Structures are given as structure tokens and as C-alpha cells.
Amino acid sequence: MKRRLFSTVLALTALAACADSPARPYIPPTPTNAIGTLMQISVVDRNNGIELPIYFYRGEYWVAGRPGARYAIRARNVMNERIMAVMSVDGVNVVTGETASTGQNGYVFSSRERGDITGWRKSDSQVAAFQFASAGNSYASRTGRPDDVGVIGVAMFRERMPEPPPPPVVPYSRRGEYGADREQREPSSSMGDARAKSSADSAVAAEAPAGNLARPQAAPSPSLGTAHGRRENSYVGKTTFERARSSPDDVVRIRYDSRENLIAAGVIPPEPPPRWTRPSGPSPFPGSDSGYVPDPPRRY
Question: Which residues of the chain have pLDDT under 70?
Fold first, then answer.
């Protein structure tokens, strides 16, 4: 009985010492697969059809690409209305090939529609596949625009709905009342325009600092870009779309690089070391006897 009590005291003391240790295990953030409000945007590895994990690190969203792998930008419209998505890769509009701007052409998604954008649009029936490659072999670099390699952008616009017809004008019995009413309504309209302009200016100002964030330093391998891959069939049609306003209603920005570079930059936590396994050869702890040293057997 005394021996068992003594062993219990030793074990409890050891556990208490471990609990008081300042060292705490690192718990990495849980990555997501899609981001966005009007539309859910994700990046799909076309070799296996799996959506790549999206990591959030220091105000930026990141995905890890694999050199040579084809990928697609997957967009899910979560609204009960049409949404226009202007998409860019490495600072280049994926439809027109122009240096990207939010006022350019894009794809229109119907209510609750999902679609994969698989490449640079070449015609109504073909695209050149998106393919991860070294930054120097990216389409943007090869066309003289290397400054924004390594980022995917989607600007989303809601559609302008037809305005209802104005209510019928009821004539006032006295001219003075009608004039006074008109004078009261006009300033409120101009004030609303000023508020709308101020709101739009604030939105632009809020988006501006995002482009100033520095890229990871001392990357162990070449940075990734998106190449102009092989031609593939992809059919689209044309439609008309009037934006509800000139500035985007939502903008998604996803940066990408190789897994090795993202681990080195701290975006992706390093993989934990492998668990201890019994080495080959003699083991220092082959058994689990918790007693004391027994006497050896007698010699014969």
C-alpha cells in the first residue's frame, strides 16, 4: 500500500510541474475554402477537383499553388439576383487581357449560379488554361507587366433594378404650398448625392492600403505566377448588364505563392515533426515494468 501511494504522489507532482510550464502548444488558424459576401470565391486544383485551403495572415488571404498545376477560380453567386464579376489574375483582366480595372468587362452570374473560370478568355468558345508557373514565365511578365504577379482579384457588382414609376402628382389647392414643398425636397436630394459621393470616396480610401502590403522576404524558392496554358474549350454567351453603381459592391483579393515560400513567410505553419517511433537495433526502454530492479536469476 505504501509503495502505491508513493508512486501516485510522484505522478501528480510531475503533472503539476508540466501544467505550470510557460510553454504552450501552437494552434494554427483554421483555413477556409471560400471568401466573399455577394459571391463565394475559391481556387480549385483542377488535377483533383479540390478547393485549395485559403489562409488568412496579417490582413491577407493566401493559397499555396503547385508549379505546373492547372487551377480555376470558382465563383458561387449567393444572391437572389444577377451579379457581375470582373476578374483579374496577376493584375490582368482574364476576359480582355487589359491591365485590370474594375470598370472593365467580366462574367455575369445568374441567381445562385456557380461557375469555374478556368483560363484566359481567347474567344466565345476557348480559353488558355490558368497554370501555376514561375513568376518569370507568367502571362503578365511575358507581356511586360510583372509588378502585380501573385494575386487573384474579383470585383463584384450588383445590377441596377428598373426604377418604379413616380407617383401621380396631386395638385395643391394653393400655389405657395406647392412651391414650398418643392424647395424642401430639392435640398434633401442634393444632400443625398453628397452622402453617396462621400460613401463612395470612403470605400475607395479603405481599399487603397491593401495594395501597399509587402511581399514575403527571403523566399526559399522562386515566386509563382500564372502562365498562359494550353487551349481548352469553354463556351460563353453575351448579355447586357447595368451596374447599380460605378464602384464595386465587394472585392475579393487572394494572393498566392508556393507552399515552401508561404511556410517560410509564416503564412502556413510548418508541419509538426513526426511522432517518435522505435528505432532499429537495441532499445533503451524495451519494457514498461514500473517496479524496482529485481534480482537476477540464479546460475546453474
Answer: 1-29, 172-220, 274, 276-280, 283, 285-291, 300
pTM to 2 decimal places: 0.66
For residue 103, being part of any structural domain is answered with yes
DSSP for the chain reads -HHHHHHHHHHHHHHHHHHT-S-----PPPPBS-B-SSEEEEEEETTTTEEPPBEEETTEEEEEE-TT-BEEEEEEE-SSS-EEEEEEETTEETTT-SBP-TTS--EEE-TT-EEEE-EEE-SSSEEEEEEEEEGGGSHHHHTT--TTTTEEEEEEEEBPPPPPPPPPPPPPSSHHHHHHHHHHHHHHHHHHHHHHHHHHHHHHHHHGGGGGPPPPSS-SSPPEEEEEEEEEE---------BSSSS-SEEEEEEEEEHHHHHHHTSSPPPPPPPP-PPSS--S------S-PPPPPPP-
**Within a domain: residue 180?**
no
Q: How many domains does the chain have?
A: 1
- Predicted pLDDT at 28: 55
Residue 1 lies inside a defined structural domain of this protein: no
Full domain range(s) for residue 121:
28-162+220-270
Evaluate whether residue 32 is within a structural domain.
Answer: yes
pLDDT at 291: 66
